[in-house]
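> call design_seq(struct)
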């Protein structure tokens, strides 16, 4: 497929019809200068070219998508806009006015640019109000803070955006979705302070949906459409093609630091976008899963009770990939952590071929001894130590096998390097810091960590969130191969396409209970989605 643009470095002003590709409620206004125009942007680190003659324009009232594999240059481009990196070449215009590069630290805010990154930039130990006003109050010359006035202002702001947040709630106590919406509202407030009422700022959303359930994504999209209608343009950076196609007007694709096309979103198929992202057609994922119906039961769970789950019973066969899904609040997402002993469980038993365990007293140490492994959704916070080298993270569970450890370091480095190559972790240098890896490579490193222990059961929560399309398929294939080798897998996910691709069976949870079991031809994306959204009605009917 050829690049879908007049030039690989010129994305132009967009389609001749300004409504083409516009999501409902978010019209593109092409009149006047673009809100942001980057031209000829290049940046190198040592001998590596991170950005190569990149052109990008974002129009007023537009939601513009930015796609690319990890390492394609997306993060570098955003850091140039934020003043974190100085480009080697290139120009920047804001609303038609030239702006000198590099930007000074914090200068982006005065230009009407604001950023919401994946980690949201919130302090969880502070209240909603304190997070909302922290910069403003820190810059105030007054030692006195009129908290009553600040609470009133915050409530008015939240009402304007239809975000029902309590200003006095601790950020740690609100949902992940509400945290994301708080970060977005705060960012829009910063834009309004800089631009006034002319609505010519830019909000950069850098993978804001990674940790959100589907209902949270829908709420985030609603506020995003409101923002482009009334306040600012949006640059939406993401990996999920369904989300990008749903929310954006146009999409620019970066590959190897170059623009490989800018297209009107509605005019591009998913297959075309994938080809632009990875440079080739992605083979249709057809995992020939063996029929496991006759396989012996490997794991039996009875009476599982958690914070939301209310007495779940289910079995997992040897070599089976069992999916678990549901709506936000249904309890499906706590299941892997309850089985691993990572969250408080109030009742239930887990039986393996060797023993029966009381889940109310299960701990991660007991789970590991029972041959159970967990890869959590937040791999950086809960699955690894980001500041340690890759080899230490990969070898953490087996270090006891290498004693005395000070005499076995070379052997551990060698084994870690072999594992990284086997699981196609790039770069495969085990001495690199874990957090320097892209999302997909971090996840593959965690798979290497646990697969070498040969667990009987591996528990996964949102295993491909924040993972680019190429690594996503690799992970699917690795999980399928592990299951064919006899490993049982439980995958808790709100990604219905993912569940359809890898699962033999899917349990739909509603109000803490299993309300549907999907097998055979029912394990398809649309059928899973249908049953999930019917789950509340199904649960109430039981």
């Amino acid at each position: 497929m050829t690049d879908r643009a007049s030039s690989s470095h010129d994305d132009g002003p967009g389609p001749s019809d300004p409504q083409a590709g516009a999501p409902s409620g978010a019209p593109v206004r092409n009149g006047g200068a673009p809100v942001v125009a980057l031209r000829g942007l290049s940046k190198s680190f040592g001998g590596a070219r991170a950005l190569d003659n990149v052109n990008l324009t974002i129009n007023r009232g537009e939601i513009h998508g930015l796609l690319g594999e990890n390492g394609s240059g997306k993060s570098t481009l955003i850091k140039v806009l934020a003043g974190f990196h100085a480009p080697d070449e290139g120009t920047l215009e804001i609303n038609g006015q030239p702006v000198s590069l590099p930007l000074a630290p914090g200068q982006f805010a005065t230009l009407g640019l604001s950023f919401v990154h994946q980690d949201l930039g919130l302090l969880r130990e502070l209240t909603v109000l304190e997070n909302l006003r922290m910069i403003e109050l820190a810059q105030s010359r007054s030692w006195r803070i009129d908290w009553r006035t600040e609470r009133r202002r915050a409530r008015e702001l939240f009402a304007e955006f239809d975000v029902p947040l309590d200003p006095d709630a601790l950020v740690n106590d609100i949902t992940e979705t509400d945290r994301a919406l708080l970060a977005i509202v705060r960012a829009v407030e910063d834009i309004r302070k800089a631009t006034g009422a002319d609505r010519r700022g830019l909000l950069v959303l850098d993978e804001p949906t990674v940790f959100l359930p589907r209902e949270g994504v829908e709420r985030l999209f609603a506020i995003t459409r409101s923002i482009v209608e009334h306040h600012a343009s949006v640059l939406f950076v993401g990996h999920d093609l369904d989300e990008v196609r749903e929310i954006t007007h146009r999409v620019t694709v970066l590959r190897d630091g170059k623009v490989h096309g800018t297209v009107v979103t509605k005019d591009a198929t998913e297959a075309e976008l994938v080809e632009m992202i990875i440079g080739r057609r992605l083979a249709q994922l057809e995992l020939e899963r063996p029929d496991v119906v006759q396989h012996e039961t490997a794991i039996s769970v009875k009476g599982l009770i958690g914070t939301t789950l209310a007495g779940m019973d289910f079995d997992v066969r040897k070599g089976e990939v069992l999916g678990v899904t549901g709506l936000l609040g249904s309890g499906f997402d706590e299941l892997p952590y309850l089985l691993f002993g990572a969250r408080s469980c109030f009742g239930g038993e887990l039986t393996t071929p060797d023993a029966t365990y009381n889940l109310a007293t299960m701990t991660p140490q007991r789970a590991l001894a029972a041959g159970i492994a967990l890869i959590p959704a937040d791999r950086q916070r809960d699955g690894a130590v980001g500041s340690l080298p890759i080899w230490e993270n990969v070898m953490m569970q087996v270090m006891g096998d290498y004693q005395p450890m000070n005499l076995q370091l070379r052997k551990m480095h060698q084994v870690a390097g072999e594992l990284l190559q086997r699981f196609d972790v790039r770069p495969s240098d085990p001495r690199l810091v874990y957090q320097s890896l892209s999302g997909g490579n971090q996840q593959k490193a965690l798979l290497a960590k646990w697969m070498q222990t040969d667990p009987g059961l591996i528990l996964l929560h949102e295993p491909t969130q924040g993972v680019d399309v190429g690594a996503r398929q690799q992970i699917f294939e690795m999980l399928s191969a592990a299951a064919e080798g006899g490993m049982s897998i439980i995958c808790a996910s709100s990604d219905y396409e993912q569940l359809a691709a890898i699962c033999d069976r899917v349990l739909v949870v509603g109000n803490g209970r299993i309300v549907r079991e999907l097998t055979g031809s029912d394990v398809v994306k649309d059928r899973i989605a249908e049953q999930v959204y019917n789950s509340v009605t199904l649960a109430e009917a039981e």
